[in-house]
Specification:
Elements (H helix, E strand, L loop, with lengths): L2 E4 L6 E5 L4 H17 L6 H17 L1 H12 L3 H15 L16
Antiparallel strand pairs: 1-2
Helix pairs in contact: 2-4, 3-4
Length: 108
Amino acid sequence: MSYQCRNPFNGKVLKTYDDLSDQALESAVCRAEQVYEVAWSKEPMRQRAAVLKQAAAIMRGKSDQLAQYVTLEMGKLWNEAKGEVELSADILDINLHGLPLRACCLAT
């Protein structure tokens, strides 16, 4: 069975996704775990922080587009959707100690 993403306002199908078997899901989780163990966890904290900071900047740069997706797929009001995108970017800006990245390991 496939999964359909529907517009909550009018019920229109926005996109249909193929079903994922338990085996395919397990394989994807295992691959992600391997990438974490082999690569990501070995990166210096400064490098990982830079990646998260860049991701947050991209989210902020595309906040209108991302908020449009949130509105379309979840039915949130525009201001709520924009707020959710900003909150998500803010979360990426927080390091393991709860301090904004700009105040810690990215200072030059």
